[in-house]
Amino acid sequence: MTTDPSQPPLDAYIRDHSDPEGDYLYRLYRATNIHTIHGRMASGHLQGRLLKMFVQMARPRNILEVGTFSGYSALCLAEGLKALEAEEPDVERRLYTFEVNDEMEDFTRPWIEGSGLADNISFIIGDANELAPRLGVMFDMAFVDGDKRTYVETYEMVMSLLRPGGYILADNTLWDGHVVDPAYDHDRQTQGIRAFNDHVAADERVEKVILPLRDGLTIIRKK
Ligand SMILES: C[S@@+](CC[C@H](N)C(=O)[O-])C[C@H]1O[C@@H](n2cnc3c(N)ncnc32)[C@H](O)[C@@H]1O
Q1: Residue 86: CATH number of its domain
Q2: Is residue 173 part of a domain?
Q3: How far, in Å, from the CA of 216 to the mean position of ligand 1?
Q4: 97 part of a folded domain
Q5: How far is the CA of 177 from the centre of ligand 1 (A)?
Q6: What's the structural domain count of the chain?
Q7: Does 6 or 189 have the greater pLDDT score?
């Protein structure tokens, strides 16, 4: 049990009745919050466990992540791939994760290298919208967690590389509730998320559902 008196009781209860994140990810999350200004951007315990579970459910060969940041979500996705590899050692599975901010590389690369999961991860510095289409790889799953202002552009890029039956998980799609708050009508990130949500809602190529987990996580399935 990891009950922390500073957490709202239900949050603590949910965490205590879900799988633990493990010592390495716990330390990474703490280090992220100590060494980066926006440490809150990292996925964290609950969403991380969901990402791993989701990989084990969907059994992708190749996953694309837009927005590595400190590597927390990347390691959770790769944990899922590793678990699948133990069941099917002959199937190669890989996460391609992109981070546009080259200042994160010195922090993030050692955490990836030290995780025991590096064999399944390609960590690429650069803009995913520009570089992912050049890989020559098709994907079965994508985690979209980059610049909120360009979510629609990223979505269309990912759709062009996603196999039918593949899944997109898009993070922060409720944006702290700002999507329904008129006070944020002129905020560019809120505008980007609203445009994305409207775009996906109207897109008949996909099925979709928004989970109100954390900051909103949309699960999208390409038909
Ligand atoms: C919310 S953080 C990612 C958090 C991480 N996925 C996690 O859950 O632990 C968003 C990151 O996306 C990066 N980013 C934004 N747009 C991007 C793009 N087009 N390609 C690659 N990285 C991008 C930002 O620099 C930032 O570090």
Answers
A1: 3.40.50.150
A2: yes
A3: 16
A4: yes
A5: 20
A6: 1
A7: 189
**Which domain covers residue 59, as residue numbers?**
41-222
Q: What are 51-74's pLDDT values in tens digits?
A: 999 999 999 999 999 999 999 999
Q: Is 80 domain-assigned?
A: yes
Dist. CA 116 → ligand 1 center (Å)? 22
Three-class HEC string of the chain = CCCCCCCCHHHHHHHHCCCCCCHHHHHHHHHHHHHCCCHHHCCCHHHHHHHHHHHHHHCCCEEEEECCCCCHHHHHHHHHHHHHHHHCCCCCCEEEEEECCHHHHHHHHHHHHCCCCHHHEEEEECCHHHHHHHHCCCEEEEEECCCHHHHHHHHHHHHHHEEEEEEEEEECCCHHHHHHCHHHCCCHHHHHHHHHHHHHHCCCCEEEEEECCCCCEEEEEEC
Where does ligand 1 bind, in terms of residues with CB under 6 Å?
A: 41-43, 66-67, 69, 72-73, 98-101, 104, 127-129, 145-147
Pocket test for ligand 1, best of 26, 49, 69, 148 (most atoms within 8 A of CB): 69
Indicate the pTM of the whole model. Answer: 0.96
Q: Whose CA is nearest to atom 17 of ligand 1?
A: 146
The answer to the question of residue 1 being in a domain is no
